Amino acid sequence: MSESTRWIQIVVGVICMIATANIQYAWTLFVPEIQKTFGWDRAAIQVAFTIFVLVQTWLTPIEGYFIDKYGPRVMVAIGAVFIGLAWILNSQATSLMGFYVGAAVGGVGVGCIYATCINNALKWFPDRRGLAVGLTAGGYGAGSAATILPIAAMIESSGFQSTFLFFGLLQGGLAFVAAWFLRSPEKSEVKVSEKVFQTRRDYTLKEAMSTKLFWLMFLMFICVVTGGMMAVAQLGVIAQDLGVKNFKVDLGFVAMAALPLALMLDRIMNGISRPLFGWISDNIGREKTMLIAFTLEGLGIIALGYFGHNPYAFLILSGVVFLAWGEVYSLFSALAGDAFGTKHIGKIYGVLYCAKGIGALFVPVGNLLMEATGTWATVLYTVAAMDLFAAFLAIVALRPVLAAHVKRSTIEPPAAEQSRQGALAGA
Protein backbone atom coordinates (compact mmCIF):
# COMPACT_ATOMS: atom_id res chain seq x y z
CA MET A 1 0.00 0.00 0.00
CA SER A 2 1.31 3.43 -0.88
CA GLU A 3 0.93 6.14 1.76
CA SER A 4 -1.13 8.15 -0.72
CA THR A 5 -3.92 5.53 -0.75
CA ARG A 6 -5.07 6.22 2.78
CA TRP A 7 -4.64 9.98 2.46
CA ILE A 8 -6.95 9.86 -0.55
CA GLN A 9 -9.53 8.26 1.75
CA ILE A 10 -9.17 11.19 4.18
CA VAL A 11 -9.55 13.74 1.36
CA VAL A 12 -12.70 12.01 0.08
CA GLY A 13 -14.07 11.86 3.64
CA VAL A 14 -13.46 15.59 4.12
CA ILE A 15 -15.25 16.33 0.81
CA CYS A 16 -18.26 14.34 2.04
CA MET A 17 -18.21 16.22 5.35
CA ILE A 18 -18.04 19.61 3.62
CA ALA A 19 -21.01 18.67 1.45
CA THR A 20 -22.91 17.71 4.59
CA ALA A 21 -22.06 20.59 6.95
CA ASN A 22 -24.48 23.22 5.66
CA ILE A 23 -27.56 21.39 6.91
CA GLN A 24 -26.41 22.44 10.39
CA TYR A 25 -24.31 25.54 9.85
CA ALA A 26 -26.26 27.35 7.09
CA TRP A 27 -29.67 26.83 8.68
CA THR A 28 -29.42 30.12 10.55
CA LEU A 29 -29.40 31.98 7.19
CA PHE A 30 -32.75 30.52 6.19
CA VAL A 31 -34.67 31.07 9.45
CA PRO A 32 -35.32 34.85 9.01
CA GLU A 33 -36.52 34.28 5.42
CA ILE A 34 -38.83 31.45 6.47
CA GLN A 35 -40.23 33.68 9.23
CA LYS A 36 -40.72 36.59 6.84
CA THR A 37 -42.49 34.42 4.27
CA PHE A 38 -44.84 32.47 6.54
CA GLY A 39 -45.03 34.67 9.66
CA TRP A 40 -44.38 31.82 12.09
CA ASP A 41 -42.79 32.37 15.49
CA ARG A 42 -39.02 31.95 15.31
CA ALA A 43 -38.99 29.51 18.23
CA ALA A 44 -41.44 27.26 16.36
CA ILE A 45 -39.21 27.32 13.27
CA GLN A 46 -36.14 26.47 15.38
CA VAL A 47 -37.83 23.29 16.61
CA ALA A 48 -36.71 21.93 13.22
CA PHE A 49 -33.08 22.42 14.26
CA THR A 50 -33.67 20.58 17.56
CA ILE A 51 -35.27 17.69 15.65
CA PHE A 52 -32.27 17.59 13.33
CA VAL A 53 -29.75 17.41 16.21
CA LEU A 54 -31.68 14.72 18.08
CA VAL A 55 -32.18 12.53 14.99
CA GLN A 56 -28.56 12.99 13.88
CA THR A 57 -27.29 12.04 17.34
CA TRP A 58 -29.63 9.38 18.65
CA LEU A 59 -29.75 7.25 15.49
CA THR A 60 -25.96 6.93 15.36
CA PRO A 61 -25.85 3.48 17.07
CA ILE A 62 -28.27 2.09 14.45
CA GLU A 63 -26.29 3.69 11.64
CA GLY A 64 -23.13 2.25 13.19
CA TYR A 65 -24.58 -1.24 12.87
CA PHE A 66 -25.17 -0.75 9.13
CA ILE A 67 -21.73 0.86 8.67
CA ASP A 68 -20.04 -2.20 10.16
CA LYS A 69 -22.23 -4.50 8.02
CA TYR A 70 -22.29 -2.78 4.61
CA GLY A 71 -19.17 -0.58 4.58
CA PRO A 72 -18.59 3.09 3.80
CA ARG A 73 -19.69 3.36 0.16
CA VAL A 74 -23.27 2.26 0.62
CA MET A 75 -23.81 4.25 3.81
CA VAL A 76 -22.41 7.54 2.46
CA ALA A 77 -24.37 7.12 -0.79
CA ILE A 78 -27.59 6.62 1.21
CA GLY A 79 -26.71 9.60 3.42
CA ALA A 80 -26.13 11.74 0.30
CA VAL A 81 -29.59 10.90 -1.00
CA PHE A 82 -31.08 11.84 2.37
CA ILE A 83 -29.30 15.20 2.66
CA GLY A 84 -30.29 16.13 -0.89
CA LEU A 85 -33.88 15.05 -0.21
CA ALA A 86 -33.95 17.07 3.03
CA TRP A 87 -33.11 20.33 1.23
CA ILE A 88 -35.57 19.53 -1.57
CA LEU A 89 -38.32 18.95 1.02
CA ASN A 90 -37.42 22.30 2.64
CA SER A 91 -37.67 24.00 -0.75
CA GLN A 92 -41.25 22.75 -1.15
CA ALA A 93 -42.42 23.04 2.49
CA THR A 94 -45.37 25.33 3.22
CA SER A 95 -46.02 24.22 6.80
CA LEU A 96 -43.98 23.82 9.96
CA MET A 97 -44.49 20.06 9.75
CA GLY A 98 -42.89 20.12 6.30
CA PHE A 99 -39.74 21.70 7.74
CA TYR A 100 -39.80 19.29 10.67
CA VAL A 101 -39.89 16.32 8.29
CA GLY A 102 -37.06 17.88 6.27
CA ALA A 103 -35.03 18.25 9.46
CA ALA A 104 -35.58 14.60 10.43
CA VAL A 105 -34.60 13.38 6.95
CA GLY A 106 -31.51 15.63 7.08
CA GLY A 107 -30.60 14.25 10.49
CA VAL A 108 -30.57 10.71 9.12
CA GLY A 109 -28.44 11.79 6.14
CA VAL A 110 -25.88 13.70 8.20
CA GLY A 111 -25.70 10.88 10.74
CA CYS A 112 -24.95 8.34 8.00
CA ILE A 113 -22.19 10.43 6.41
CA TYR A 114 -20.63 11.84 9.60
CA ALA A 115 -20.44 8.49 11.40
CA THR A 116 -19.17 6.64 8.31
CA CYS A 117 -16.39 9.09 7.50
CA ILE A 118 -15.19 9.16 11.13
CA ASN A 119 -15.34 5.36 11.18
CA ASN A 120 -13.32 5.08 7.98
CA ALA A 121 -10.63 7.48 9.25
CA LEU A 122 -10.28 5.40 12.43
CA LYS A 123 -9.74 2.23 10.40
CA TRP A 124 -7.21 3.63 7.93
CA PHE A 125 -5.02 5.44 10.48
CA PRO A 126 -4.50 3.39 13.66
CA ASP A 127 -1.05 4.99 13.91
CA ARG A 128 -2.40 8.56 13.48
CA ARG A 129 -6.02 8.27 14.53
CA GLY A 130 -6.17 11.64 16.28
CA LEU A 131 -4.95 13.58 13.26
CA ALA A 132 -7.03 11.60 10.74
CA VAL A 133 -10.27 11.90 12.70
CA GLY A 134 -9.49 15.53 13.52
CA LEU A 135 -9.08 16.44 9.85
CA THR A 136 -12.29 14.60 8.97
CA ALA A 137 -14.32 16.14 11.80
CA GLY A 138 -12.74 19.51 10.98
CA GLY A 139 -14.22 19.22 7.48
CA TYR A 140 -17.66 19.21 9.10
CA GLY A 141 -16.82 21.89 11.67
CA ALA A 142 -15.38 24.34 9.15
CA GLY A 143 -16.91 22.95 5.97
CA SER A 144 -19.54 25.64 5.62
CA ALA A 145 -16.99 28.46 5.41
CA ALA A 146 -16.63 28.26 1.61
CA THR A 147 -20.37 28.14 0.90
CA ILE A 148 -21.91 30.45 3.51
CA LEU A 149 -21.45 33.56 1.34
CA PRO A 150 -22.78 31.95 -1.90
CA ILE A 151 -25.81 30.61 -0.03
CA ALA A 152 -26.47 34.01 1.56
CA ALA A 153 -26.10 35.71 -1.84
CA MET A 154 -28.49 33.29 -3.55
CA ILE A 155 -31.08 33.67 -0.79
CA GLU A 156 -30.89 37.44 -1.37
CA SER A 157 -31.18 37.19 -5.17
CA SER A 158 -33.39 34.14 -5.76
CA GLY A 159 -35.19 33.42 -2.49
CA PHE A 160 -34.72 30.69 0.07
CA GLN A 161 -36.78 28.03 -1.77
CA SER A 162 -34.59 28.14 -4.88
CA THR A 163 -31.49 28.14 -2.68
CA PHE A 164 -32.64 25.06 -0.80
CA LEU A 165 -33.31 23.26 -4.08
CA PHE A 166 -30.07 24.23 -5.85
CA PHE A 167 -27.72 23.53 -2.96
CA GLY A 168 -29.61 20.36 -2.02
CA LEU A 169 -29.00 18.92 -5.48
CA LEU A 170 -25.41 20.23 -5.54
CA GLN A 171 -24.35 18.98 -2.11
CA GLY A 172 -26.27 15.71 -2.27
CA GLY A 173 -24.83 15.01 -5.72
CA LEU A 174 -21.26 15.81 -4.62
CA ALA A 175 -21.46 13.48 -1.61
CA PHE A 176 -23.09 10.74 -3.70
CA VAL A 177 -20.29 10.79 -6.28
CA ALA A 178 -17.58 10.94 -3.60
CA ALA A 179 -19.11 7.96 -1.78
CA TRP A 180 -17.96 5.51 -4.45
CA PHE A 181 -14.30 6.37 -3.85
CA LEU A 182 -14.48 5.22 -0.21
CA ARG A 183 -13.47 1.76 0.97
CA SER A 184 -12.36 0.02 4.15
CA PRO A 185 -8.70 -1.05 4.48
CA GLU A 186 -7.40 -4.60 4.38
CA LYS A 187 -5.55 -5.75 7.50
CA SER A 188 -2.24 -5.65 5.61
CA GLU A 189 -2.78 -1.97 4.82
CA VAL A 190 -2.68 -0.64 8.39
CA LYS A 191 -0.16 -0.52 11.20
CA VAL A 192 -0.65 0.09 14.92
CA SER A 193 0.78 3.01 16.87
CA GLU A 194 3.76 2.60 19.15
CA LYS A 195 3.12 5.89 20.97
CA VAL A 196 -0.36 5.42 22.47
CA PHE A 197 -2.13 2.59 24.32
CA GLN A 198 -3.92 0.42 21.74
CA THR A 199 -5.73 -2.88 22.05
CA ARG A 200 -4.69 -5.80 19.86
CA ARG A 201 -8.20 -7.23 19.52
CA ASP A 202 -11.64 -6.16 18.33
CA TYR A 203 -14.37 -5.86 20.95
CA THR A 204 -18.05 -6.34 20.18
CA LEU A 205 -20.48 -3.64 21.35
CA LYS A 206 -21.64 -5.88 24.21
CA GLU A 207 -18.06 -6.54 25.32
CA ALA A 208 -17.15 -2.84 25.12
CA MET A 209 -20.20 -1.81 27.15
CA SER A 210 -19.30 -4.34 29.84
CA THR A 211 -15.99 -2.57 30.55
CA LYS A 212 -15.35 0.10 33.15
CA LEU A 213 -13.41 2.06 30.51
CA PHE A 214 -16.43 2.54 28.22
CA TRP A 215 -18.60 4.10 30.93
CA LEU A 216 -15.75 6.28 32.19
CA MET A 217 -15.34 7.63 28.64
CA PHE A 218 -19.11 8.13 28.38
CA LEU A 219 -19.20 10.14 31.63
CA MET A 220 -16.26 12.33 30.59
CA PHE A 221 -17.77 12.88 27.12
CA ILE A 222 -21.05 14.04 28.68
CA CYS A 223 -19.26 16.45 31.06
CA VAL A 224 -17.22 18.15 28.35
CA VAL A 225 -19.78 18.19 25.55
CA THR A 226 -22.54 19.48 27.87
CA GLY A 227 -20.35 22.29 29.13
CA GLY A 228 -19.24 23.25 25.65
CA MET A 229 -22.76 23.17 24.20
CA MET A 230 -24.08 25.28 27.08
CA ALA A 231 -21.41 27.91 26.48
CA VAL A 232 -21.83 27.91 22.70
CA ALA A 233 -25.64 27.87 22.71
CA GLN A 234 -25.89 30.79 25.12
CA LEU A 235 -22.99 32.89 23.80
CA GLY A 236 -25.24 35.51 22.22
CA VAL A 237 -27.29 36.01 25.38
CA ILE A 238 -24.15 36.00 27.52
CA ALA A 239 -22.58 38.67 25.28
CA GLN A 240 -25.72 40.79 25.61
CA ASP A 241 -25.84 40.46 29.39
CA LEU A 242 -22.12 41.27 29.66
CA GLY A 243 -22.75 44.42 27.60
CA VAL A 244 -20.36 43.58 24.76
CA LYS A 245 -22.73 42.21 22.10
CA ASN A 246 -22.79 45.30 19.88
CA PHE A 247 -19.44 46.79 20.85
CA LYS A 248 -17.46 47.57 17.68
CA VAL A 249 -14.11 45.78 17.84
CA ASP A 250 -11.47 47.38 15.63
CA LEU A 251 -8.55 45.05 14.90
CA GLY A 252 -7.04 47.28 12.23
CA PHE A 253 -7.77 44.93 9.31
CA VAL A 254 -11.40 44.36 10.36
CA ALA A 255 -13.96 46.23 12.46
CA MET A 256 -17.20 44.56 13.48
CA ALA A 257 -19.42 43.91 16.50
CA ALA A 258 -17.95 41.64 19.17
CA LEU A 259 -20.56 38.87 18.93
CA PRO A 260 -20.44 38.13 15.16
CA LEU A 261 -16.65 38.38 15.31
CA ALA A 262 -16.61 35.86 18.16
CA LEU A 263 -18.92 33.54 16.19
CA MET A 264 -16.64 33.80 13.15
CA LEU A 265 -13.73 32.93 15.42
CA ASP A 266 -15.73 29.89 16.58
CA ARG A 267 -15.70 28.46 13.04
CA ILE A 268 -11.97 29.03 12.66
CA MET A 269 -11.05 27.64 16.08
CA ASN A 270 -13.35 24.64 15.62
CA GLY A 271 -11.61 23.85 12.35
CA ILE A 272 -8.15 24.17 13.91
CA SER A 273 -8.95 22.42 17.19
CA ARG A 274 -9.86 18.96 15.92
CA PRO A 275 -6.75 18.11 13.87
CA LEU A 276 -4.44 20.06 16.21
CA PHE A 277 -5.37 18.24 19.41
CA GLY A 278 -5.76 15.00 17.45
CA TRP A 279 -2.17 15.31 16.24
CA ILE A 280 -0.97 16.15 19.76
CA SER A 281 -2.77 13.08 21.14
CA ASP A 282 -1.07 10.84 18.55
CA ASN A 283 2.26 11.88 20.01
CA ILE A 284 1.70 12.22 23.77
CA GLY A 285 -1.39 10.04 24.32
CA ARG A 286 -5.14 10.73 24.46
CA GLU A 287 -5.42 11.05 28.23
CA LYS A 288 -2.60 13.63 28.56
CA THR A 289 -4.11 15.64 25.70
CA MET A 290 -7.51 15.52 27.38
CA LEU A 291 -5.96 16.83 30.59
CA ILE A 292 -4.46 19.80 28.70
CA ALA A 293 -7.54 20.57 26.56
CA PHE A 294 -10.19 20.17 29.27
CA THR A 295 -8.15 22.24 31.76
CA LEU A 296 -7.69 24.98 29.16
CA GLU A 297 -11.42 24.90 28.46
CA GLY A 298 -12.34 25.15 32.15
CA LEU A 299 -9.92 27.98 32.91
CA GLY A 300 -10.97 29.81 29.73
CA ILE A 301 -14.63 29.72 30.78
CA ILE A 302 -13.82 30.91 34.31
CA ALA A 303 -11.83 33.80 32.82
CA LEU A 304 -14.70 34.56 30.42
CA GLY A 305 -17.07 34.93 33.36
CA TYR A 306 -14.60 37.13 35.23
CA PHE A 307 -13.18 39.32 32.43
CA GLY A 308 -15.91 39.01 29.80
CA HIS A 309 -17.19 42.57 30.33
CA ASN A 310 -14.16 43.74 28.36
CA PRO A 311 -15.01 43.21 24.65
CA TYR A 312 -11.42 42.38 23.70
CA ALA A 313 -11.12 39.90 26.56
CA PHE A 314 -14.50 38.45 25.53
CA LEU A 315 -13.22 37.93 21.99
CA ILE A 316 -9.92 36.31 23.02
CA LEU A 317 -11.38 34.13 25.76
CA SER A 318 -14.30 32.92 23.65
CA GLY A 319 -11.70 31.91 21.06
CA VAL A 320 -9.82 29.93 23.72
CA VAL A 321 -13.05 28.25 24.79
CA PHE A 322 -13.91 27.21 21.23
CA LEU A 323 -10.35 26.01 20.58
CA ALA A 324 -10.39 23.78 23.64
CA TRP A 325 -13.91 22.42 23.05
CA GLY A 326 -13.91 21.27 19.41
CA GLU A 327 -11.37 18.51 20.03
CA VAL A 328 -13.82 16.25 21.90
CA TYR A 329 -15.02 14.85 18.57
CA SER A 330 -11.53 13.76 17.56
CA LEU A 331 -10.20 12.61 20.95
CA PHE A 332 -13.08 10.39 22.04
CA SER A 333 -13.50 8.73 18.64
CA ALA A 334 -9.75 8.07 18.41
CA LEU A 335 -9.70 6.72 21.96
CA ALA A 336 -12.64 4.41 21.18
CA GLY A 337 -10.68 2.96 18.25
CA ASP A 338 -7.58 2.54 20.42
CA ALA A 339 -9.50 0.84 23.22
CA PHE A 340 -11.94 -1.41 21.39
CA GLY A 341 -10.50 -2.03 17.91
CA THR A 342 -12.19 -1.09 14.63
CA LYS A 343 -14.19 -4.13 13.49
CA HIS A 344 -17.27 -2.98 15.44
CA ILE A 345 -16.29 0.66 15.98
CA GLY A 346 -19.35 1.96 14.10
CA LYS A 347 -21.68 0.54 16.74
CA ILE A 348 -19.39 1.25 19.70
CA TYR A 349 -18.68 4.90 18.87
CA GLY A 350 -22.33 5.27 17.84
CA VAL A 351 -23.41 4.53 21.41
CA LEU A 352 -20.60 6.68 22.85
CA TYR A 353 -21.65 9.57 20.57
CA CYS A 354 -25.08 9.55 22.24
CA ALA A 355 -23.32 11.56 24.98
CA LYS A 356 -23.83 14.56 22.67
CA GLY A 357 -27.57 13.92 22.65
CA ILE A 358 -27.64 13.75 26.43
CA GLY A 359 -25.61 16.96 26.57
CA ALA A 360 -28.12 18.69 24.26
CA LEU A 361 -30.92 17.84 26.69
CA PHE A 362 -29.00 19.53 29.52
CA VAL A 363 -28.44 22.79 27.60
CA PRO A 364 -31.76 24.37 28.78
CA VAL A 365 -30.54 23.89 32.36
CA GLY A 366 -28.26 26.86 31.69
CA ASN A 367 -31.28 29.13 31.34
CA LEU A 368 -32.80 27.78 34.56
CA LEU A 369 -29.54 28.39 36.44
CA MET A 370 -29.34 31.92 35.12
CA GLU A 371 -32.97 32.68 36.08
CA ALA A 372 -32.48 31.20 39.56
CA THR A 373 -29.28 33.11 40.31
CA GLY A 374 -29.72 36.23 38.15
CA THR A 375 -26.26 35.94 36.60
CA TRP A 376 -24.53 34.00 33.82
CA ALA A 377 -21.46 33.68 36.03
CA THR A 378 -23.13 30.76 37.83
CA VAL A 379 -23.68 28.97 34.53
CA LEU A 380 -20.12 29.58 33.36
CA TYR A 381 -18.59 28.42 36.64
CA THR A 382 -20.78 25.27 36.61
CA VAL A 383 -19.68 24.52 33.06
CA ALA A 384 -16.03 25.12 34.01
CA ALA A 385 -16.38 22.74 36.97
CA MET A 386 -17.61 20.01 34.61
CA ASP A 387 -14.62 20.55 32.31
CA LEU A 388 -12.12 20.52 35.17
CA PHE A 389 -13.75 17.40 36.62
CA ALA A 390 -13.29 15.68 33.23
CA ALA A 391 -9.65 16.84 33.15
CA PHE A 392 -9.15 15.38 36.64
CA LEU A 393 -10.69 12.06 35.55
CA ALA A 394 -8.48 11.97 32.43
CA ILE A 395 -5.28 11.65 34.40
CA VAL A 396 -6.43 10.13 37.71
CA ALA A 397 -8.91 7.53 36.39
CA LEU A 398 -8.71 7.22 32.60
CA ARG A 399 -4.95 6.70 32.36
CA PRO A 400 -4.68 3.69 34.73
CA VAL A 401 -8.00 2.19 33.59
CA LEU A 402 -6.94 2.43 29.91
CA ALA A 403 -3.50 0.94 30.62
CA ALA A 404 -5.04 -2.00 32.50
CA HIS A 405 -7.65 -2.49 29.77
CA VAL A 406 -5.05 -2.62 26.98
CA LYS A 407 -2.80 -4.94 28.98
CA ARG A 408 -5.74 -7.25 29.61
CA SER A 409 -6.77 -7.25 25.95
CA THR A 410 -3.31 -8.40 24.85
CA ILE A 411 -3.31 -11.45 27.12
CA GLU A 412 -7.01 -12.40 27.03
CA PRO A 413 -8.30 -13.96 23.80
CA PRO A 414 -11.59 -12.64 22.36
CA ALA A 415 -14.83 -14.09 23.69
CA ALA A 416 -15.36 -16.30 20.62
CA GLU A 417 -11.87 -17.75 21.00
CA GLN A 418 -12.44 -18.31 24.72
CA SER A 419 -15.65 -20.23 23.94
CA ARG A 420 -13.83 -22.37 21.37
CA GLN A 421 -11.03 -23.14 23.83
CA GLY A 422 -13.60 -23.99 26.50
CA ALA A 423 -15.35 -26.38 24.14
CA LEU A 424 -12.05 -28.06 23.27
CA ALA A 425 -11.18 -28.39 26.95
CA GLY A 426 -14.51 -30.06 27.68
CA ALA A 427 -14.25 -32.46 24.75
Automatic annotation (TrEMBL):
Q: Does the keyword Ribosomal protein apply?
A: no
State the CDD domains in the record: MFS_OFA_like (cd17353)
Pfam families, sorted: MFS_1
Keywords, sorted A to Z: Membrane, Transmembrane, Transmembrane helix
What are the Major facilitator superfamily (MFS) profile domain coordinates in residue numbering? 8-402
Q: Please give the start and end residues of each transmembrane region.
A: 7-31, 43-62, 74-93, 99-118, 130-152, 164-182, 213-239, 251-269, 290-307, 313-336, 348-370, 376-398
InterPro entries membership: MFS, MFS_dom, MFS_trans_sf, Oxa/Form_antiport, Proton-linked_MCT
Q: What name appears for this protein in its UniProt entry? A: Oxalate/formate MFS antiporter
Supply the source organism for this entry: Chelatococcus sambhunathii
